[in-house]
Write a structure and sequence with these properties.
By secondary structure, the chain is mainly alpha-helical. The protein contains six helices and five strands. The protein has a three-stranded antiparallel beta sheet. Strands 1-2 form a two-stranded antiparallel ribbon. Helix 4 runs antiparallel to helix 5. Bound molecules: fe (ii) ion.
């Protein structure tokens, strides 16, 4: 299992770290934005593949969470693309073949990767944006770091209760279209991360 998680982590994290970007004089922050864009697109593909596997194994609720997270990662990629376009950067995108194991392993891998993003990758990018005095990138990367932390919490909860989710049906999750925050509860007034009101949220099941 540990080897499987590390394999998935390597696919996603290497995608994050090595994406080249074509721009006149790219800053480290611009490279980080390009890497994050590629990584978020790969995460979308990975979560989508894991959702299919969870459905096959009868973990309907887990499949719903993976689909909600896939949608969230696409929202992250779209936000990053806006900044990259403003900088006239053309990031190289390489979507790697998703690594799919058992749902138990997939959930653990997802927890591992999201924790790395929350604790290492995005904090490093946030620090670099501050050094580069790129306030727009700083705001977005900080937001992404905070959203990934909430994704990690949902996945950790799912991992801890996975046995009871065998045979479950799909359920609704609520995705913020502005920042990719995912709520597992329907009753709230606004996004926990950004100013988006509840009425803007997308229901994913
Ligand atoms: Fe939000």
């Amino acid at each position: 299992m540990k080897r499987f998680s590390l394999c998935v982590a390597l696919v996603l994290l290497v995608a994050f770290l090595t994406t080249p970007v074509a721009a006149a004089a790219p800053t480290d922050t611009l490279r980080n934005l390009a890497g994050a864009y590629n990584r978020e697109l790969n995460a979308n593909a990975q979560f989508t593949a894991w959702a299919l596997q969870a459905d096959k194994e009868g973990y309907g609720e887990v499949a719903s969470l993976f689909r909600a997270l896939a949608r969230a990662e696409q929202i992250h990629a779209d936000s990053l693309q806006v900044l990259l376009k403003k900088a006239a950067a053309k990031p190289m995108v390489k979507i790697l073949k998703p690594v799919v194991g058992s749902t138990q392993n997939n959930v653990r891998s997802a927890v591992f990767v999201e924790n790395e993003l929350r604790d290492v990758i995005y904090p490093r990018a946030v620090k670099q944006a501050a050094i580069d005095k790129d306030t727009t990138a700083l705001d977005l990367l900080t937001r992404l770091k905070n959203v990934e932390a909430t994704h990690a919490r949902l996945l950790a909860f799912t991992s801890a209760h996975l046995t009871s989710l065998s045979g479950s049906r799909g359920r609704a999750y609520y995705v913020c279209p502005d920042c990719g925050y995912v709520s597992d509860k329907p009753d709230f007034a606004k996004c926990a991360i950004c100013p988006a009101p509840r009425g803007k949220f997308i229901t994913v099941s």
